[in-house]
Amino acid sequence: MMTWLRTCALGAAGGGLAHWAGFPSDWLLGAMLLVALSAMLGLEVRLPKALLPPIQACLGVAVGLRLEFDFPGPASLLFSVTGLLLCLATQIPLGQYLLRRLGWSRQEAAMGASPGALSIMAALATRLDNPIRVILSQTVRVIALVATVSAVMLLEWVPVVDTPVSRVLTLPESLLLVLAAWVLGKGAGLLRVPASYILAGVFLAAAYAAWLGASSVPVAGLIPVSMVLLGALVGSRLKRLPAREMGQLLLVGLLISLSSSVIALGWAAIVAWWLNLPVFQVWLAYAPGAVEAMIYLALVTGLEPSWVIFHHVLRILLLGLTAGWLMRRAGSDMPINNEKGKA
């Protein structure tokens, strides 16, 4: 319990400091960096993974309350989805090739190169004798993505907008929506629906906003608290290692993040040019992971969060199907808990 409280306190301090300094995506980035730094310095930081579903439900509710279905026509949507598929088809083989050249095994490269689905790949990596390579590289990818987007916003290449709303929900309204989204998302998760908690929050909040007849936002403080917890969760995944090994793994994670992000930017530029959309909006939709962070950034920049979430859910679904194939393969030819040859 003390470890959880310490981690929350560090996250709140980091987020608060970043907010005071005026950084974009302040609560998320500040909490993540301070907790990650504490972990790398050897301080024990940890939060229960059970916090992630409520955080995802909060984000889904925030999107649903301002949901707009101003999507492009079917032909344009098909073009953007095709761009996403081509992006994945480019990112994954290149990432695997780079990791194999760096001496990773075939299984490690397959999981480490995945542009997203961190929790799935981390769970799959536990079947390896030494899962730290995969888990750390995937964690660095998330941290690098959030930091990169925050830097873009700090340089004011993309304006942060205040979306006009006509109503702020009360605390009971907001908490009831999040609770209902959590329950519905848990049920949907049992049916293997991708991003079930986020989708549940979107649908319930959109229905509630339609019933109210006005665009709304959750009670003040709900999203900052969610972002502090999310940042602390991500940052706490880093564990202290020997300096040389930690440096090598950090560089590998940054290399994979950079290659995947540049590929996503290239395909995003093509799709944005064809559909006459902002490049940053399409890049947020194609970004290699960090779905919660990308949706949050789409919210604060006003760049069609419902359009962004559609592409991320599709990406998660595709990666989830791939992960299922990898899991079956892992059961037959990966060593599990140092017991060779067992399924």
Please write out the topology.
Layout: H1 2-21, H2 26-40, H3 52-65, H4 74-101, H5 106-112, H6 118-125, H7 132-154, E1 167-168, H8 171-190, H9 196-212, E2 216-217, H10 222-235, H11 243-275, H12 279-286, H13 291-301, H14 305-333
Parallel strand pairs: 1-2
Helix pairs in contact: 1-2, 1-10, 2-7, 2-10, 3-8, 3-9, 3-10, 3-13, 4-5, 4-11, 5-7, 6-7, 7-11, 8-9, 11-12, 12-14, 13-14
Account of the protein in words:
The chain is an all-alpha fold. The chain has a single domain, classed as Na+/H+ antiporter like fold (Up-down Bundle). The chain has helices at 2-21, 26-40, 52-65, 74-101, 106-112, 118-125, 132-154, 171-190, 196-212, 222-235, 243-275, 279-286, 291-301, 305-333, and strands spanning 167-168, 216-217. It has a two-stranded parallel ribbon with strand order 1-2. Helix 3 crosses helix 10 and helix 6 (118-125) runs antiparallel to helix 7 (132-154). The longest helix is centred in the C-terminal third of the chain and has 33 residues, at 243-275. The chain is globular. Residues 330-343 have low confidence and may be disordered.
